[in-house]
Amino acid sequence: MICNKCGQTLGEDVRICPICKSKQQIVNYEKCSYKPRSRKVAGILQILFGGFGIGRFYLGYNRIALGQLFTFPIFFIGGIWGFIDGILILCGQIECDVNGVPIE
Description:
By secondary structure, this protein is an all-alpha fold. It has two domains: 1-33, no CATH class; 34-91, no CATH class. The chain is built from four helices and no strands.
């Protein structure tokens, strides 16, 4: 297994990297029943329709998406939040979908 953050080679059951101290997500990709989500699609959806949480719904983060949806009418907070969130998705700050599968 390789560390998600620093790339250090780890043992199979290591939960925390001894080098960078990041928490490791153990994902069995063979049991994954869908193709990895697209970073570009998620980012563009979030920039264009971020006030409605569409990009986050696409990645499976339903609670965050509902938060953006419900804060959209309040001084357009959800729209600004969604736009910034879309930029973060495109820049690679959000690395996995809700199931821990890395987005491509």
